[in-house]
UniProtKB/TrEMBL annotation:
Source organism per UniProt: Olivibacter domesticus (Pseudosphingobacterium domesticum)
Protein name: Haem-binding domain-containing protein
Haem-binding domain span: 16-151
């Protein structure tokens, strides 16, 4: 019994040291300043309803306006979130959308429709915490219809 207790104490101490140690892993936050002329809202007509859905469900990973919550300062959450946020921004940044070539814009919009129709975006790990980012079927069709209409207009330029 005494031995078991000792093992438990050692395990807890090791765990505690580990949790402390990982806090020293550097945390990277990134919010590039560009949100002016290249933003999708400046380049295209984005109805207010669409904008507000994008903002509540996508902007934390796909814009230069990430709102970092308090737990983003705590490891290992920081590392986990950082990966999603940086990769998300690299794949698609609504604040830099206008700097993409038209063909890339077109493909990103088509991908957006696929992601939404497959319910792959927003990421499940995100909606688990951000309940208001869960999209209703109505919101999904609002976004995909807007995206399709925008692509149709782009077709002319391709
Ligand atoms: C928690 C972060 C996060 C949120 C929130 C999020 N995404 Fe993503 N998104 C990612 C990551 C990370 C990727 C990169 C691919 C992957 O790992 O699945 C990605 C990829 C994508 C892609 C693929 C781009 C390509 O090149 O094909 C699209 C489109 C997309 N997201 C759209 C959205 C939309 C629309 C929303 C909101 C409804 C959204 N995402 C919300 C993190 C996020």
């Amino acid at each position: 019994m005494a031995k078991q207790k000792k093992t438990l104490t050692t395990t807890l101490i090791v765990l505690l040291l580990f949790v402390i140690a990982v806090q020293f892993i550097p945390k990277a936050e990134r919010n590039d300043s560009a949100r002016g002329a290249k933003a999708i809202t400046k380049q295209y007509d984005v109805p207010e309803k669409v904008q507000s859905i994008l903002q509540k469900a996508c902007f934390d990973c796909h814009s230069n306006r990430t709102e970092y919550p308090w737990y983003s300062n705590i490891q290992p959450f920081a590392k986990f979130m950082e990966g999603h946020i940086l990769r998300g921004k690299d794949e698609l940044n609504f604040d830099e959308f206008g700097s993409y070539a038209i063909k890339k814009q077109y493909n990103k919009l088509r991908s957006l429709e696929n992601q939404l129709e497959n319910e792959a975006m927003p990421l499940r790990s995100y909606t688990l915490i951000h309940h208001n980012a869960r999209l209703s079927n109505e919101e999904i069709s609002l976004l995909t219809n807007w995206s399709k209409a925008l692509r149709n207009k782009m077709d002319i330029k391709l």
